[in-house]
Design brief:
The protein is built from 4 helices and 14 strands. By secondary structure, it is mainly β.
C-alpha cells in the first residue's frame, strides 16, 4: 500500500551496496515535467575522493523506512567508476544518457509522450543542443513561489508517493515572520520554474483552485 511521505525525511538516509556501505543521501533529482524522482544524489566522501555520485531510482532493492536505509543492487566498484555529473545544476539529457548507459538502466523517456517546454517557460542556463530537465530538490528548496506578481512564500518541502516516486505537492511556507504557516500546493499548479531567478510561478487559476477547496 502506497503512502505519501515528506521527502526531507530521507535526507541523510544511508545507502548500502551489495558489498558494503556507499554513503548517505544528499539530494534527489526529479524530472520537472512529470515531477517524478529519477536519481539519488549520494555523498561518498568517506571512501572516495569524489564528493557525490548519482544513482538511478531503479537500482533501489529495498527501502527501510524505520532505519532510513536504501539498499541498492550495485557494487561499490560500479559506484566508484560511475560518470561525473554536477547535480547542483539542471541536468541535460546528454549527461543523463551517460549515467544510464553506464549503469545499464533503460532510458525511460523512450516511452514517454512529453512535449518539451517552450524555451523561456523553463529558465535553463544551458548550451545550445542541451535538453536540461532534471532538477535538484535541495536547490529548489527555498525558491520563492509567485502567484502572478505577488510572492506567496517559499518552497520548504516536497511530498511524494512512496510507490511511484511522484512528487504530488510542494510544501510552501507563507505569511510574515510573525504569522507563518505552511500550505500544500499540488505540482500541477506549477506554471514555470526559473533556475536563474530562484522562483516557482503558479498558474493564474491558483486562486480559483484555492477558493474551490474551501
Amino acid at each position: 500500500m502506497s503512502m505519501v511521505r515528506n521527502l526531507q525525511y530521507l535526507y541523510s538516509a544511508g545507502v548500502i551496496a551489495t558489498d558494503g556501505t556507499i554513503g548517505r543521501v544528499l539530494d534527489f533529482l526529479f524530472d520537472d515535467r512529470s515531477w517524478t524522482i529519477r536519481y539519488l544524489v549520494v555523498d561518498v566522501r568517506t571512501w572516495m575522493v569524489r564528493h557525490d555520485v548519482v544513482i538511478p531510482i531503479e537500482a533501489i532493492h529495498e527501502l527501510d523506512w524505520e532505519k532510513k536505509n536504501f539498499h541498492v543492487r550495485l557494487t561499490r566498484v560500479q559506484v566508484r567508476e560511475s560518470p561525473d555529473l554536477d547535480a547542483r545544476r539542471p541536468v541535460s539529457r546528454q549527461q543523463e544518457m551517460a549515467v544510464r548507459n553506464f549503469y545499464g538502466w533503460p532510458k525511460y523517456w523512450h516511452d514517454m509522450e512529453i512535449d518539451l517546454p517552450v524555451r523561456g517557460k523553463y529558465d535553463f542556463p544551458a548550451a545550445a543542443g542541451d535538453d536540461p530537465h532534471l532538477r535538484s530538490t535541495e536547490a529548489i528548496a527555498g525558491y520563492g513561489v509567485l502567484e502572478g506578481n505577488r510572492e506567496l512564500g517559499h518552497v520548504e518541502s516536497f511530498v511524494m508517493d512512496d510507490s511511484s516516486w511522484h512528487i504530488g505537492y510542494l510544501g510552501v511556507r507563507t505569511g510574515s515572520w510573525l504569522d507563518q504557516h505552511s500550505i500544500l500546493v499540488p505540482t500541477p499548479w506549477v506554471k514555470s520554474i526559473s533556475w536563474s531567478g530562484c522562483r516557482v510561478s503558479l498558474h493564474d487559476t491558483y486562486k480559483h483552485h484555492l477558493a474551490s477547496a474551501k
